[in-house]
Design a protein that fits this description.
The chain has about 140 residues and is mainly alpha-helical. The chain has 6 helices and 2 strands; from the N terminus they run H-H-H-E-E-H-H-H. About 50% of the residues lie in helices and about 5% in strands. Strands 1-2 form a two-stranded antiparallel ribbon. A hairpin with a 5-residue loop joins strand 1 and strand 2. Helix 1 crosses helix 3 and helix 2 packs across helix 3. It is elongated.
């Protein structure tokens, strides 16, 4: 898996919210629908809020709402919000000493794929994922 489990959960949460867009979504609804633990959902929502992807509305009928349309949110933004861009920065083999100055055997080959992967994540939006009928939340 290229993304970590936290990012996967965040993606599922945002896809669920996108399926309800432009309606507001309560954290409890997300927990019940996606079967993700409540504490985990609330931490995700806090990170996504701090990243400027969603905002919370307080009060009895409060919840979370997108700050911009799901069609305007690229997958790379979600990875960055979850601090999950290591696949785009680190050595594919996991060597700490691998760099442009001191490359491992795969460094230059991986650099090309890493750029393509970053372009893919930058060009694909939440809405595009949601439009795929094979997506199951």
């Amino acid at each position: 898996m290229i993304i970590n489990i936290t990012t996967s959960y965040a993606l599922r949460v945002l896809l669920y919210m996108a399926s309800k867009y432009p309606e507001m979504v309560a954290a409890r609804e997300v927990v019940n629908q996606l079967h993700i633990p409540d504490k985990y959902v609330r931490r995700l929502m806090t990170k996504l809020s701090k990243a400027g992807l969603i905002t919370s509305i307080q009060g009895r009928k409060g919840g979370y709402i997108f700050l911009k349309a799901p069609s305007q949110i690229a997958l790379i933004e979600i990875l960055k919000a979850m601090d999950d861009t290591s696949v785009l920065q680190n050595c594919i083999l996991g060597f700490e000493s691998c760099s442009d100055e001191h490359p491992c055997a795969l460094h230059n080959h991986w650099a090309d794929y890493r750029k393509k992967l970053e372009q893919l994540f930058s060009s694909f939006s939440l809405s595009q994922l949601l439009d795929n009928p094979n997506i199951k939340l």
